[in-house]
Amino acid sequence: MMDMGLNNKTALVTGSTKGIGKAIAVELAKEGVNVLINGRNHEEVERTVNEIKSDFPATSPQNATADIVDIGQREALFKKYPNIDILVNNMGIYEIMQYEDAHDEVWEKYFRTNVLAANGLSKFYLPKMLKNDYGRIIFIASEEAIMPSGQMPQYAVTKTMLLSLSKSLSKLTRGTEVTVNTIMPGPTLSENVQQIIDGIYADEDMSFSEKEKQFMAANLPQSEIQRFIRPFEIGRLAAFVCSPHASAFKGSPIRMDGGMVPTIF
Question: The pTM is what?
Answer without folding.
Answer: 0.97
